[in-house]
Amino acid sequence: MKVSQYLPLALTALVASAAAPRKYKKRAPSPFVSTEGDQFVVNGSAFPFIGTTAYWLPTLNTEQDIIDTISNMSARGIRVVRTWAFNDVETIPENGTWFQLVANGTTTINDGPNGLQKLDKVIDIAEQHGMTVLLSLTNNWNPRPLFDNLTDFGNLTLRRDVTPGTNNTHPRNFLSNDFGGMDVYVRQFGVSGQHDEFYTNETILSIFKNYTTQIVSRYANRTGVFSWELANDPRCHSSVAASDDCTAQTVTRWHSDVAQHVRSIDPNHLVSSGSQGFFCVDCPKLFPRVTPPPPQTSPAPGQRRRSLPPPLTRANLLKKRRIARKRNREAKRAAAAGSKSAVRIRGNWIATPTRRQNDQDLGPAFDGSQGVDSEDIFNIPEIGFGTFQLFPDQNSYGVDDPNLTPFENTVQQGIDWIQQQAASAASMGKPSALTGFGLVTQENSPFFTPFNTSVAPFGSDSGQPITQQPFGVTDEQRDDAYQQWISTGIEAGLRGMIQYQWGQSGFTAQAGTTISPDNTETGQSANDDETGQSPNDGYSAQGVSGISVMDILGQAAQSFAGDS
Ligand SMILES: *[C@@H]1O[C@H](CO)[C@@H](O)[C@H](O)[C@H]1NC(C)=O
Ligand SMILES: *[C@@H]1O[C@H](CO)[C@@H](O)[C@H](O)[C@H]1NC(C)=O
Ligand SMILES: *[C@@H]1O[C@H](CO)[C@@H](O)[C@H](O)[C@H]1NC(C)=O
Ligand SMILES: *[C@@H]1O[C@H](CO)[C@@H](O)[C@H](O)[C@H]1NC(C)=O
Ligand SMILES: *[C@@H]1O[C@H](CO)[C@@H](O)[C@H](O)[C@H]1NC(C)=O
Ligand SMILES: *[C@@H]1O[C@H](CO)[C@@H](O)[C@H](O)[C@H]1NC(C)=O
Ligand SMILES: *[C@@H]1O[C@H](CO)[C@@H](O)[C@H](O)[C@H]1NC(C)=O
Ligand SMILES: *[C@@H]1O[C@H](CO)[C@@H](O)[C@H](O)[C@H]1NC(C)=O
Ligand SMILES: *[C@@H]1O[C@H](CO)[C@@H](O)[C@H](O)[C@H]1NC(C)=O
Ligand SMILES: *[C@@H]1O[C@H](CO)[C@@H](O)[C@H](O)[C@H]1NC(C)=O
Ligand SMILES: *[C@@H]1O[C@H](CO)[C@@H](O)[C@H](O)[C@H]1NC(C)=O
Q1: Does 513 score more than 60 pLDDT?
Q2: Per its UniProt entry, which superkingdom is the organism in (predicted)?
Q3: Dihedral over Cα of 135, 140, 141, 144: its sign
Q4: 8 A C-beta contact, residue 424 and residue 378
Q5: Contacts (Cβ under 8 Å, ≥6 apart) of 490
Q6: Residue 531: what are its φ and ψ, rounded to 5°?
Q7: Is the CB of 164 under 6 A from ligand 11?
Q8: Among 1, 43, 116, which Cα is nearest to 346's?
Q9: Which ligand lies nearest to the CA atom of residue 268 in the structure?
Q10: In a mutational test of the pocket of ligand 5, which residue from 144, 146, 149, 160 has the highest number of ligand atoms less than 8 Å from its CB?
Q11: Ligand 2: which atom is nearest the Cα of residue 90?
Q12: What is the pLDDT of residue 78?
């Protein structure tokens, strides 16, 4: 049986218990999204959501294009769209949207029609459609090869310059990592030029807070804002290296400081991190948990309270992995022996080279090496809910089980990651949301641009002879993985899941802007007389194959938002 055939059923059953409609009458219903125990609440009702990402939403050329996009999302039952509330430039571009000029020791906000008025429109239109917008305030990533001095991939010349008329590989704002962000501040104000100067230099901190003050106060009273995300994927390093002093605590301290700042300006909206959710199992905490709070909401009638999982420690993590591997090995043996009781875990067993793993190695998602301790961040009082992301093409979430195929490992590690995050949130009594997930398909692989580069390594603009082995999963595998991750998330008690990223065509084109011509290779700027499609950095749900992703989101949203 194909997964898609039983998914809606599974979702409906799960949702009936996990996210049963429940009214919250303790306080007067607020039109702002807040939390009650481990649920999001709005207008007096629980607000579990399926969301999507369109970082490019404020760069669209006409109001009608924004309306078309948001109404298409809304028609699928999507309630939250995540977008960038920053667009930093170092020189004023000839065309296109920009929000802040950061240059020559000063910053200037653009609140004109190609500036913050674009973001105003997004919020207005979202409110008109009963949608909310999750706004991210900056980005960890902004590769600028000429500055960052990355070496080349073979013959590949890494180049992108936002100056019009120079050799742009893509139109400005085409890639999610081309909206400025932390490294703009470091380049313009930093002394050492290291990425973590963004987190620690007092001058940079006050300049960034100045930006957040203006953005956050502009929308503080708007019900169309879901929450403030402090940064997309914050960590110690970017394409720019970090100093030796940067630890997870550096990044946690920054979160605490900026979260307090945002809450002081805007008490109406929740604040969240936006990190990948990496754990640091052995790290000392700045915000230690004193006692586990009792769950504040009572279970729905007929439902047992979810029992708390064992705490995330090195010993527990390694033990869990050993047990899983043993179980998979036994299932494989039983399957080979043709036993009737054989459990086939996701399809046929395919022999994979058995590589001896280091059993003591926690891996970068758990050992703090990225400079993120999501549990410590989660415990900051001003952080309203837990966030994490899932991008297996770019991060490692565990140790491969030699009993499983590569695809099975990808899916399984995603499932484990979701369960681990939900468990961590449950022990904290706050809601948890997956704020970005995606898998690169073979069809999308020519557009796949890793977050630390500005060129697609498998694309025609890479300058590489196309001798690369095929990259990416099939569309069917992607759909299978998305469905399994979504049902796992619902079952485990996540309160929101945001796919990365939305795709749409038929937009108004304008030379020099982010919109590519329809029906031709994406990544080029369309001319004024063409219609165009949204950017694709390798994850876009676009065209015929994208519709199946939208259908999956629509099905999940329908069941998930059971109370509306
Ligand atoms: C989005 O909306 C436009 C215009 O309303 C429509 O033509 C298009 O088919 C829709 N796209 C999707 C993916 O639903
Ligand atoms: C910054 O200063 C330099 C030197 O005075 C000047 O050439 C440049 O145009 C300035 N940049 C901006 C964005 O004002
Ligand atoms: C804060 O931002 C505004 C607008 O961009 C700018 O005019 C002002 O100089 C900034 N203040 C500081 C202290 O950087
Ligand atoms: C909350 O209620 C207001 C007023 O009825 C409505 O405009 C808004 O869309 C609702 N919010 C959500 C997220 O449903
Ligand atoms: C790149 O790094 C090399 C070696 O450190 C240095 O000589 C060169 O000036 C750098 N280039 C740029 C553009 O920064
Ligand atoms: C660079 O490109 C040339 C011609 O396309 C090719 O012969 C050569 O092997 C390439 N070198 C590398 C390092 O990829
Ligand atoms: C653009 O790239 C081509 C080929 O590398 C080069 O010849 C040309 O000078 C570049 N133009 C600019 C404006 O940098
Ligand atoms: C922080 O940045 C400012 C502005 O560039 C600089 O003057 C100052 O020396 C930096 N502070 C430290 C401790 O590096
Ligand atoms: C939000 O609304 C409240 C009450 O109307 C008002 O006091 C406050 O100044 C507003 N905040 C902002 C940032 O506009
Ligand atoms: C980008 O990040 C990946 C994964 O961390 C790393 O393997 C790769 O070397 C990085 N590439 C560049 C150009 O920084
Ligand atoms: C900016 O837009 C104008 C008018 O559409 C166009 O002529 C010009 O080439 C564009 N500039 C760039 C750098 O694309």
Answers
A1: yes
A2: Eukaryota
A3: positive
A4: yes
A5: 11, 14, 15, 18, 19, 556, 559, 560
A6: -100, 160
A7: yes
A8: 1
A9: 9
A10: 149
A11: 13
A12: 96
Closest of 452, 528, 513, 503 to residue 171, by C-alpha: 513
129 Cα: distance to centroid of ligand 4 (angstroms): 9
Angle at 53 between CA 170 and CA 363, to 5 degrees: 90
Cβ-based neighbours of 453, under 8 Å, separated by 6 or more:
143, 150, 158, 239
Residue nearest to atom 4 of ligand 11 (CA): 511
Q: Compute the distance between CA of residue 156 and CA of residue 166 in angstroms, rounded to an integer.
A: 17
Pair of tokens at residue 479: 């759909």
End-to-end CA gap in the chain? 31
Percent above pLDDT 70 for the chain: 79
Tokens standing for residue 296: 């504040």
| Cis preceding-peptide flag for 501 (omega within 30 of 0) | yes
| Overall fold of domain 3-561 | TIM Barrel (3.20.20)
Within 6 A (CB) of ligand 7 lie 166-167
- In terms of Cα–Cα distance, which of 212, 208, 181 is closest to 195? 181
Cα atoms found within 13 Å of the Cα of residue 403, Cβ hemisphere only: 21
Bridge-based pairing of strands 386-390 and 516-517 is unpaired
Q: What pLDDT band is residue 510 in, cutting at 50, 70 and 90?
A: confident
Atom of ligand 4 nearest to the CA of 131: 13
128 lines ligand 4 (CB under 6 A): no
Q: Read off φ and ψ for residue 46, nearest 5 degrees.
A: -60, 150
Residues 6+ apart with CB under 8 A from 34: 40, 41, 42, 270, 384
Which residue is listed with tokens 């809450």?
A: 263
**pTM for this entry:** 0.87
Determine the Cα–Cα distance for residues 477 and 138; give it in Å rounded to an integer.
Answer: 32
Q: What is the pLDDT of residue 153?
A: 38
Sequential DSSP letters for 396-418: --S---TTS-HHHHHHHHHHHHH
What does the block give as tokens for 120? 């105003």
Over residues 242-271, the mean pLDDT reads 98
Whose alpha carbon is nearest atom 2 of ligand 6? 155
Distance, in Å, from the CA atom of 274 to the CA atom of 255, rounded to the nearest integer, reads 10
Please work out whether the CB of residue 42 comes within 6 Å of at least one atom of ligand 4.
Answer: yes
Q: Which atom of ligand 11 is nearest to the CA of 95?
A: 1
Which helix (H) or strand (E) element contains residue 279? Answer: none
The pLDDT assigned to 462 comes to 54
Average per-residue pLDDT for the chain = 85
CA distance 542 to 548: 10
Question: What is residue 103's three-state secondary structure?
Answer: strand
What distance in Å separates the CA atoms of residue 78 and residue 558, rounded to the nearest whole number? 9
Q: Which atom of ligand 6 is nearest to the CA of 464?
A: 14
* Closest to 235 (Cα-Cα) out of 216, 215, 254: 254
| Residues 242 and 197: beta-carbon distance below 8 Å | no
Domain boundaries, the chain: 3-561
